[in-house]
Flagellar assembly protein H domain protein (Streptococcus mitis), 91 residues
Amino acid sequence: MEFFGNKPFTQQPERAISQADQLLDYKSWSEEDRKMFSQLRMREEQALLAQDYALEQAEERGLERGLERGRAEGLEKGLERGLERGRAEGI
């Protein structure tokens, strides 16, 4: 069917529209269709939860690495400043 073209319809659009409406009506689905949709939706939800968890874990690891790096750099700079101060004071 040419819904999006500037051409005349080759089929009756009412039939296609009514079929699409039936597909969107959850109550008209068979029990098998409902189970299949439910399983697909559950899998999608599980995948999204797993992705959220992975992102949280990655963020936590990144923060930990940043803190470790910051501590190491802080200690290094502190030691350098202490040595410089000690040399300046003649210790």
In short: The first helix runs from residue 13 to 24. The chain has a mean pLDDT of 86. DSSP finds two helices and no strands in the chain.
